[in-house]
Design a protein that fits this description.
By secondary structure, the chain is of the alpha/beta class. The protein has six helices and nine strands, in the order H-E-E-E-H-E-H-E-E-E-H-E-H-E-H. The termini are close together.
């Protein structure tokens, strides 16, 4: 329905993490990712236009924060990319979920990284607020702790949607068995689901 077809894709991982990686590592990782994703294109064809899917932590009042913007501009110049826009990943996910489910989504989106996690409150298809933190305990306990930092929330949607690179049965079970803090305003035990591998990238393209 979006009118877009994915013709090539590839993933590369940072040795450290996105925040602490050097500019050299950014260049190396992005160059390798783009080159391998372009293999499916006709020989000699290169891509230049780029849309960046970025973490919500990089965005402040609809603009990419200055430090990240400067880095993206410099990297784009080095790789001869022409940035034509950016999207917050949780917002893109909420839009695609709405398209697939046929109704605006109300849920808590939890991104579980190796060292960090983020939790976004989505209500009626709109991204309300996102909180971030280091992953110092189990992912479920980390999400619980971040949810307790949200203010002025009368009721949380009783639905938690996790994305971390694909379905993980142990991760799902750890959330299902977690005893949520009594102070959290859930009306009943939240339903847990994990997005399939690549859903975040697909959402940005959509």
């Amino acid at each position: 329905k979006s009118g877009s077809t994915i013709v090539g894709k590839h993933e590369e991982y940072f040795q450290t993490n996105l925040e602490e990686a050097s500019e050299e590592e950014w260049l190396k990782v992005l160059d390798a990712t783009i080159s391998k994703a372009e293999v499916a294109l006709p020989q000699g064809t290169e891509t230049h236009k780029a849309i960046f899917g970025v973490p919500a932590s990089w965005v402040e009042e609809t603009h990419i924060k200055k430090d990240y913007l400067q880095k993206l501009k410099k990297i784009s110049g080095e790789l001869t990319l022409t940035p034509i826009g950016f999207l917050e990943i949780p917002e893109a996910i909420a839009h695609l979920m709405q398209e697939e489910e046929g109704a605006p989504v109300s849920a808590i989106l939890a991104e579980i990284g190796k060292e960090y996690l983020s939790v976004s409150l989505v209500r009626g298809g709109r991204l309300i607020e996102t909180k971030f933190g280091a992953l110092v305990d189990t992912p479920a306990k980390g999400v619980d702790a971040l949810l307790r930092t949200f203010e002025n929330v009368e009721v949380f949607p009783a639905r938690i949607v996790i994305f971390n690179g694909g379905f993980d049965e142990r991760l799902a079970q750890s959330f299902i068995s977690h005893q949520w803090s009594r102070s959290l305003p859930f009306l009943h035990v939240p339903q847990i689901s994990i997005l399939p591998l690549g859903f975040d990238a697909k959402a940005v393209i959509f």
